[in-house]
């Protein structure tokens, strides 16, 4: 280890030549060390900056490693829905990109409301869009808007199911067959 001692010497006019000669060496050593330290500091700062530019901090996203490719709305293929979500992309279709814009569905209007809050013409179109059906009606789903009283007044609907009251049957989108428990 190099030990540098800095000695402050007070010189008077009579000793100026002697003082100047004795302080030259420690002063040069000190300046040389300071310059080297500044150069090393500069190199270190440049290295830190360069490495931060090349390797930006990775965002952590705990996704399973299973492979079910999806195409994101950004046009990139992701290994699964979770990875697409972590990248900030919405799933456009459940396969490798590009997605086919044509969906081979029948032109039957039987509306379904999906968990994304959108109404699709039928279940096939919802499936092609890669979304799950919440209810078989237009959005919002009846369960989302119904606030039925808890009065037991059973009704039987055409689907053969007994509902708690007319309001709950209506909210389920079912027509009442008779006003009593099934069977009618």
Give a written overview of the molecule:
This is Kazal-like domain-containing protein. Keywords: Membrane, Transmembrane, Transmembrane helix. This protein has 184 residues and is α+β, with helices and mostly antiparallel strands. Among the domains are: 66-101, Wheat Germ Agglutinin (Isolectin 2), domain 1 (2-Layer Sandwich); 112-143, no CATH class; 146-183, Wheat Germ Agglutinin (Isolectin 2), domain 1. The chain has five helices and nine strands; from the N terminus they run αββαβββαβαββαβ. It has helices at 16-54, 81-86, 123-128, 142-145, 166-171, and strands at 70-72, 77-78, 91-93, 112-114, 119-120, 133-135, 155-157, 162-163, 176-178. It has a three-stranded antiparallel sheet. Strand 4 (112-114) and strand 5 form a beta hairpin. The model is unreliable at 1-24 (pLDDT under 50).
